[in-house]
Amino acid sequence: METACFVWNETEAKSGSCEVATAVFKYLVKLDQEGKQTVHLFYDRCAGQNNNRTIVVMLSYATTVLKNIKEITLNVLVTGHSHHENHSVHSVIETATINKQIFTTHQWQMAITMSFKNHVPCVEVYDHSCVYDFKPASSLLQHMTIWKNSLKSDEGKNAGEKLYWSKLMILKFQKNKPGLLLFKYSYSDKEFEKCTIYQMKTTRRKSIYPNRMHAKTV
Known about the structure:
Number of strands: 7
Radius of gyration: 19 Å
Helix content: 25-40%
Distance between the termini: 38 Å
Largest sheet: 5 strands, mixed
Order of helices and strands: EHEHEHHEHEEE
Strand order of the largest sheet: 2-3-5-6-7
């Protein structure tokens, strides 16, 4: 079992879609450096953090710029059935740190590292300069009209039918098909449908936070 955790405090970043997308991208970079070629991800329906267009743009970007990863499949868990291994990781950390006084991010890093008995997790500390701004590209997806089977070679069946983002269950991104999203609305669907999406450029990857933020008062 391998555990990867990303931590930061409220003066460095928030807890939105760019923060989550950056954490996943950094983990994908690690897998790419290990020579992995196929990646399967599992998300719940939390729209504010992971079930959104920001993640879609990031995954499309990752398959383009990373060297070894050829395919990424995102599986969206069914609402009400979203318990998975990550919850057990959170439970281990919560149990190990309960009733302990932890004041700084680096103390959390040490506490998380020492929470596991069978392995040593990878714990990375964020600062504000680490969070990539994927929103300019994702906002284009929001305002563009995205249609299923919009490629010229696919005119005919289902051409011009609108794509419903909130209903997607499986999304697939492939290196040899940049800018193309393969998707299913149901796990029971036999074949993938497809549509073109905005392709994020390498030069657009920059930090979303130019400076640190003020901590909230309690």
